[in-house]
Automatic annotation (TrEMBL):
Keywords: Cytoplasm, Methyltransferase, RNA-binding, rRNA processing, S-adenosyl-L-methionine, Transferase. It comes from the Bacteria. It is an enzyme of class 2 (transferase). Belongs to the class I-like SAM-binding methyltransferase superfamily. rRNA adenine N(6)-methyltransferase family. RsmA subfamily. S-adenosyl-L-methionine binds at residues 16, 18, 43, 64, 89, 111. This is Ribosomal RNA small subunit methyltransferase A.
């Protein structure tokens, strides 16, 4: 079918469109959408993934920022009864507005624009209870950070905050040739599955965020130095953590114990740390 739409990829919207049919099928197989499920695609672009998603019979909502792509998406998918198009910025979108019944959880999918991938993941984590799972194409380096383990150079704030909420699976790597125009770096597909019950719940996850940010501000220093402004060596030890370690040597559970200790101290002194 010839298409009456010509679109020039826009850098400022992070537009690298997938054109490799093998890669597109592999991504769709990993997601395996089904009728009765509710899928949200972020940044459908010219519909490379959208077509398979809509054909699966799943209920599909898509959010696209670029006004110029809207007519094309409407033309291709607008008549499908299971398709709804939202023009706007996914970073500001109220995902809860899409979900009706309690068991109607979202399966989020996106070949994400690189410039918004980290803030978007944090925005989605705020809605973790209404999300079944997420499949993203991201810069390979970002996926390596998401899936990193303690002690590894990639282990940091992103790994810890995402692994606090989700199980992370590195699925596969995608080379630049799969896109038009090709990006300068390699990409990879990641699956994030929010835990229905957090394995290490923090009393206040904003305190966890604060302590992780503070600790990794100077990742080469020991905890007794990086956390000096927040807690004493005795408090670090009371949380069962060795203050002579560097932040990259701690796992999620260690950071949660530090955060919970900090919440206790703050409650004791009745002047909690501003998160
Ligand atoms: N899904 C398509 C594909 O795989 O070929 C397009 C992927 S392209 C890397 C990213 C898409 O996200 C573009 O269509 C772009 O216009 C859209 N986009 C960029 N910023 C966005 C935002 N803040 N909210 C929603 N969509 C956005």
């Amino acid at each position: 079918m010839s298409e009456p739409f010509q679109h020039r990829a826009r850098k400022r919207f992070g537009q690298n469109f997938l054109h490799d049919a093998g890669v597109i099928h592999r991504i769709l197989r990993s997601i395996a959408p089904k009728e009765g499920q509710h899928v949200l695609e972020i940044g459908p672009g010219q519909g490379a993934l959208t077509e398979g998603l809509v054909d699966s019979g799943a209920k599909l909502d898509v959010i696209e920022l670029d006004l110029d792509l809207i007519p094309q998406l409407k033309w291709r998918f607008g008549l499908k009864p299971n398709f709804s198009l939202h023009q706007g910025d996914a970073l500001k979108f109220d995902f809860a507005s899409l979900v009706g019944a309690e068991d109607d959880k979202l399966r989020v999918v996106g070949n994400l624009p690189y410039n918004i991938s980290t803030p978007l993941i944090f925005h989605l984590l705020d809605h973790a209870p209404i999300i079944q799972d997420m499949h993203f194409m991201l810069q390979k380096e970002v996926v390596e950070r998401l899936a990193a383990e303690p002690g590894n150079g990639d282990w940091g704030r992103l790994s810890i905050m995402v692994q606090y909420f989700c199980r992370v699976d590195y699925l596969f790597t995608v080379g630049p040739g799969a896109f038009n125009p090709p990006p300068k770096v390699e990409s990879a597909i990641v699956r994030l599955v929010p835990y229905s019950e957090l394995p290490y719940p923090a009393k206040d996850h904003r305190v966890l965020e604060r302590i992780v940010r503070e600790a990794f501000n100077q990742r080469r220093k020991t905890l007794r130095n990086t956390l000096r402004a927040l807690m004493s060596v005795e408090d670090i030890e009371a949380a069962g953590v060795d203050p002579t370690l560097r932040p990259e040597q701690l796992n999620v559970a260690d950071f949660v114990r530090l955060a919970n200790r900090l919440s206790e101290i703050s409650a004791d002194t009745a002047q909690g740390p501003s998160a």
